[in-house]
Amino acid sequence: MTSMIFANSQIAIPLQSDLSYALMNEQITLQFNGLDNQIIDDHFAVLQFPTQLEQDAKILGDGFQMLAQTGGRLNAPQDIGRCPDNSASYRLYPEHAAKRFYNYLVIEQIDGFTLFGFTSCHRFAGYFEIQPQQAGINITAFIDGEHTQTQDWRSQQMEAITVIKGTVLADVYADYTVKIQSHHPRRTGVTADAPVGWCSWYAYYAQVTGQHILDNVEVMCHSQSELEWVLLDDGYQAFMGDWLTPSDKFPRGIKSLLQSIKAKGKKPAIWLAPFIAQAESEIFKQHPDWFIRHANDDLLKAEDITYGGWRCTPWYILDTSNVAVQTHLTNVVRIMQQEWGVELFKLDANYWGSLRGQRLQKGITGVEAYRLGMQAIIDGAGDALVLGCNAPMWPSLGLVDAMRVSDDVERRPERFEQIAKETFNRSWQHRQLWQIDPDCITLTSLVDQGTEQANYVFHRDVILAAGGLTLSGDPLPLLTEFARQTWTKLLTRQRLSQESAQFQSLANNHSILQLAHQYQLHCLFNYADNVAVEHTLVADSPVMWRDLWTGEALYPRPIASLTVKLEAGLSSRAIIMSAVS
What is the CATH number of domain 199-275+320-404? Predict the structure, then answer.
């Protein structure tokens, strides 16, 4: 097999004689052309990229599911989130196997950046491994064939891969985005105004009641009138799976509640986990044939093969290759959209919709089944926005308007730091693949969950830099003065720019956002290290530098450069650079 060479001089070596490889538009597309029926396992090597890389180069690799990312260095990878794909909970691959970097792998060296990335995910997840050799380092691309047999495939087309090099990280991501969009056009909501509002989960969790919603909407109609969206999260339903049947905490029903929200000039949004059901649900009792099974025909529980779920377990998984299941999902969502007035759907536990198991359609992968299920939901959603959460990342391309990119927020510094890193690593995706959702903004302590104000200051700077969905997770009647002042500034930022601030390095310690012609926002971050750091901010000519939150001038007159010190530990600054007329 002949090697292939990208325009940037990167060599790609084909590894499978039964595949055809075509290099076009700086992407290598893969197609199976073998004559024999083959089983394609979850570790099917397709391309090898010989490289000369610095051993201590910074790296960033994505995960298959939302909660997994890998950072650190080439010779010392570090898990960023709580739930790596190879963790004891998620079990996508063996814990002691070589580290897998799903979707894309970015390497930062002294002379610039190299991105190895899959540009499509229609049927198969793709990932990369780093394999040291005597003469250098090989980056190898793999396809997860999910142990399907090629004779059962509906198409012989596989996926596409690219390699991009550049000296500016934002330019590398921009090039990658264009290539992805050629396979997965983005939905119209990706470039709409980001939803600004309130979500019930982090104020009340599953104990939410109809009265809680009404109490918060009342605040939104007066002192927090710029909050527009009301997201009713988990806890309203009788059982997981029975989304149209309310619990007894909502005696007037959900339709009536959402219509009252709309009557007050606010936009109703609702949470559901469309691909799972608990044993007590009517859908599970009446349609056991709608669920994924093991090879021995026993019903498959999520906990049998992966993380079992956070409540109301065990979770059973709908088989979205079944047309009857697709019709059911479309009907549920259509009722919510057309009859209840839902204008945004937060779809949670999406990862479980991609689990592998015995489905009605033979040879279909978990990725394909998930995409079929998502399309069924889209068919019912009409012009409502679709937000993915706890989702398989690349299998969701082209199917959501917005995507949660971080773990669940908690009012403690460790989680604020984690969310910052997870969000910033994916902020390049904002308004390109989907609108990013950095999760809710929590600035007010609860009786059983709280932290010091210094940590809330860090958290608000993270949200300020990230942009994207801007939803309060606090009980609005209990907002502190600090929280109210924060919201005033956050809303001004959203009016001036809907973009994410851009980082120049994988270190994610300095981001820049042009807010208006004469204003530039600089967000600086120090993570939980015991070392103070200094940043030097530079302008083309003398400018004024002010603290965004207080308006204080950081130097009494215009200057072209400013050195800012961040204290050791979790700390941040938000600084406005303004041109002098």
Answer: 3.20.20.70
